[in-house]
Amino acid sequence: MRVRLSVFLSLAITLGVTTIACAAEGGKDLMAKKDVRETRLEELARANIIGVHAYQVILAEKSGRGDKSCYAAGALDTAGLEALVAHQQSLLADDTVEIDKWAGSGESAFDPEKDLAPLIAAPLALSDRLPVNVFLAYLGGAVKENESDILAVANLYQVCFEMERDGTMLWELMFFYRALGYKTYVGQFGLPGADEDFLAVGEKLAALCCSSPFDDDTTTPFAWEIVGRKIWNWGEKYGHASDQYTMARELLTEPGVRVLIPRIRALPAEKIAVIGHSFTMQSHWSTPGSFAAVAAAVFNMENPNVVTKQWQAGGLTATRAFRNFYQDALAWKPDVVLFAVAMRGDQDLADLKTMAQGFAAEGAKVYTFDNLRDPSEDAVRNQMGDTVARETGMTIIEVGQLLAKAPDKAEFVCLDKIHMTEPYHRLMAREWLKFLVGARGAKL
Questions:
Q1: Number of structural domains the chain divides into
Q2: In the list 35, 297, 427, 428, which could disulfide-bond 248, CB 3.0-4.6 Å?
């Protein structure tokens, strides 16, 4: 596939889709106006596909991985590829309000010649064996949807395969597409979304792909399965079809949590600091809401005087938390502090002790959990438990045995075999809420 912008102002694109003419004389034809908008939305999505591909060609050249016939620069040198990447970043930074006006043929400050035209006109060939084109062909045959929506979802898959830009480019694209009204995951096309459904698609498409420069090579069905799961979950989360607030509302209907509502509402104003790794992060793909974010959402709805603020990072150790977040969190002057950090050695213990004592000296109550997964799977945490309590003086909330005996325990771990799914976070949110309102103690 080669992308070219023939006559931009005539709104013609030549990528295997029907060329759409300008609006009827006088600009009154509503159907023509709709076609103009769809064409322009297609151009924006195709431009993003080109920008991502340029980045991936650079990635392939640097890593020495990936099929060179698919990830080829063609007539472009590295500077030319980097220029395309820069154009895409600039396009995503543009005001989506103005882009939306332009797409609808209204008066707009958006200048398509600045970034969109150079991307569309780039002399960069995209092989039919690239994952993005393999997926486009599959979706084109599986659903009857606007081409722009199909392109947008394929673009999100395209960048998600990289993994390294999950929290940057992928989210920028997700928010860009949502702002302009695109669909962002296959559930909106009416396709099924169980893990086994994504694996079945992967088993069909992986064999059609060329080798990629990514850690999970797109010639393997698993790469397609996990990317399908991520895009679906993020699409639901950022579209607010299923997020921490939907989980909080559902949790508040459970008998064991519903009875806590008077206690939740009776709590005095309080500031809760959560300092944690990816199990606490609302942005992670494995669940609609992390337990910390779900509990915070419950307070937002039932008692907004109780405020939660999070300091978080993937794989956060106590030492990294001390270096990166401690002073900022201390300056916030929380009343309650929860640590959910990785403990990997003596320095982590020393830094955790310093932080716990520092918060306590300012009057905060400091807590951690005895475990964040089945104790039988976490020997390091088990060994550290008594030492953490003794050395830091913080209170340890017991949940490990509840996790080990949970009837839905088999559903806890997600596809990456590390992070936790919604059932786990429901249990943890429930226990954290019970503890905070005094419905249970630190020990079971």
A1: 2
A2: 297
